[in-house]
Write a structure and sequence with these properties.
The chain has helices spanning 3-39, 62-89, 92-121, 126-154, 166-191, 215-240, 245-270, 275-308. By secondary structure, it is mainly alpha-helical. The protein folds into 2 domains: 1-158, no CATH class; 160-308. Helix 1 packs antiparallel against helix 8 (275-308).
């Protein structure tokens, strides 16, 4: 490959990475709009799917506008993603590297479209609402992951990475698992109308931290308890990774967002679920998902570098972080 051609391919990867980041931001906004659709009780404002009252463009009021606007945003994002994919896949070098990641993004998008239709057709069944929320966050993460891959490919030199201690990898994995659980419980809390099942804080209905683990109160209690566990896990990860520049910064940022999310969650209860706080709560949840995904990605990349170096002698004077 000539230097000029290599420069052109890296420039295309850089532009595509920025485009993927813009789509990730739009997908993030789509998650927040979806939360506002639920908060306004507009989930069935369009009672059919994919049309709305049998029309492409229905007569609009506030509720129909929320639901129909959500669909228009999703359709626009899908079309833009097709354009991005066409831009990336036209270059042989990028096609070889990013065909599989793009296929994964489209697979998640297809699942999200199906779940969106089922959410309407099944009358907002809690399992569809929760699965739609989880898949929406997975879609945002997949776009962020794609963007980082493209931008790293475009860089003149790969970002330096060193082996991570096993404890950091395990803590990162634990944070990811707790986050998935938290998002799932959050979706069930919302879809079952359990947002105010515990109307006081820190005790649940001035009774105890966990008066029951069943019914609406149980869902709310589990959401709180798992939130505390997530906060503790990220605090442990940030402390353990404080000497690892890249993953340490990511873990600290994630911890800060988690703490802010706890504060917003408390405000959501004490202020009786105001729409603005509900939207912020959803936005921060996706921000935590992005930060967690970047932590996991960094851990996997560091592990790949360490694995590749197993059979290579370390340069004189170099000490891997895991051996400290």
């Amino acid at each position: 490959m000539s230097p000029a051609h290599d420069l052109m391919i890296r420039g295309a990867a850089r532009n595509a990475g920025r485009g993927a980041a813009a789509l990730a931001l739009l997908a993030w906004c789509l998650v927040v709009v979806g939360a506002l659709v639920r908060a306004h009780g507009a989930g069935l404002a369009c009672p059919d799917w994919p049309l709305c009252f049998g029309q492409m463009v229905p007569e609009l009021d506030l509720l129909v506008g929320f639901e129909w606007g959500h669909r228009v945003m999703a359709a626009s994002l899908s079309i833009a993603l097709v354009g991005l994919a066409a831009f990336v896949l036209r270059a042989r070098e990028l096609r070889a590297r990013f065909l599989a990641p793009l296929a994964s993004v489209f697979g998640i998008l297809g699942l999200q479209i199906v779940l969106g239709g089922l959410t309407v057709l099944l009358g907002l069944a809690p399992w569809t609402v929760t699965a739609h929320l989880l898949t929406g966050n997975a879609f945002v993460i997949s776009l962020v992951w794609l963007s980082r891959g493209l931008l790293e490919y475009a860089a003149a030199a790969p970002a330096p990475r060193i082996e991570l201690p096993g404890s950091i990898v395990l803590l990162g994995a634990g944070c990811a698992v707790l986050l998935v659980v938290q998002l799932g419980i959050g979706g069930l809390v919302s879809s079952n109308g359990a947002g105010l099942a515990c109307a006081t804080f820190p005790l649940c209905n001035s009774d105890s931290l966990a008066p029951t683990l069943s019914g609406q109160v149980g869902l709310h209690v589990l959401h709180r308890l798992n939130g505390y566990a997530l906060c503790i896990a990220f605090a442990a990860l940030a402390w353990r990774a404080r000497g690892s520049a890249r993953i340490g910064r990511l873990a600290t940022a994630a911890l800060a967002i988690v703490v802010l999310q706890v504060v917003v969650g408390i405000a959501n209860v004490l202020l009786r679920l105001p729409l603005e706080i509900t939207a912020l709560h959803s936005a921060l949840a996706t921000a935590i998902a992005i930060a967690t995904a970047l932590v996991v990605r960094e851990a996997l990349a560091a592990r790949a570098v360490a694995q590749a170096a197993v059979d290579l002698p370390a340069p004189a004077g170099q000490v891997l972080e895991g051996a400290r």
